[in-house]
Amino acid sequence: MNIGLIAHDAKKILIQNFCIAYRGILSKHNLYATGTTGRLIEEVTNLNVHKYLAGHLGGEQQMGSSIEHNLIDMVIFLRDPLNPKSHEPDVDNVVRLCDTHNIPLATNLASAELLIKALERGDLSWREAYK
């Protein structure tokens, strides 16, 4: 499966720790991330991550395009809702596209852990048929 990973600046360490904790599961899948997030994940996990541009330079739009073209099977987007960014419309766009195209989306650690455990159990195998 193709997993999209995005994290706002305040959530970068959290997504690194998440990827360390679930490295065994993530290593069995294709990972896609916005630039800085992808680089930080690679540094601490040695996982191979396809990196788009940094989010504020268009990486979130690139991720959105992959979602629109049914190339991403689930997205973990650790957002910082208390400190909106200047590119907030792009954030809303990724969420809207996941809803529009029926892509499982986690926006906080609790839902990310639920999705990753569901992925491990095979609960998301319906995505293969959906393609």
CATH level-four homologous superfamily name: Methylglyoxal synthase-like domain
Tell me the CATH topology: Rossmann fold
> Could you give the count of β-strands?
5
Q: How many structural units, i.e. domains?
A: 1
Give the overall pLDDT as a whole number. Answer: 91
CATH architecture descriptor? 3-Layer(aba) Sandwich
Shape: globular
| Low-confidence sequence ranges | none
Q: How helical, in percent, are the residues?
A: 40-55%
How are the strands of the largest sheet arranged? 3-2-1-4-5
Radius of gyration over C-alpha positions, nearest whole angstrom: 13 Å
| Count of helical stretches | 7
Q: Characterize the biggest β-sheet.
A: 5 strands, parallel
Structural class of the secondary structure composition? Answer: alpha/beta
What top-tier CATH class fits best? Answer: Alpha Beta
Q: What percent of residues are in strands?
A: 15-25%
General description of the model:
With 131 residues, the chain is of the alpha/beta class. The chain has one domain: Methylglyoxal synthase-like domain (Rossmann fold, 3-Layer(aba) Sandwich), CATH 3.40.50. It has seven helices and five strands. The protein has a five-stranded parallel sheet, sandwiched between helices.
Supply database-style keywords.
single chain, 7 helices, 5-stranded parallel sheet, Rossmann fold, alpha/beta, 15% strand, globular, 131 residues
Topology at a glance:
Elements: E1 2-7, H1 12-21, H2 23-26, E2 30-33, H3 35-45, E3 49-51, H4 59-68, E4 74-78, H5 88-100, E5 105-106, H6 109-121, H7 126-130
Parallel strand pairs: 1-2, 1-4, 2-3, 4-5
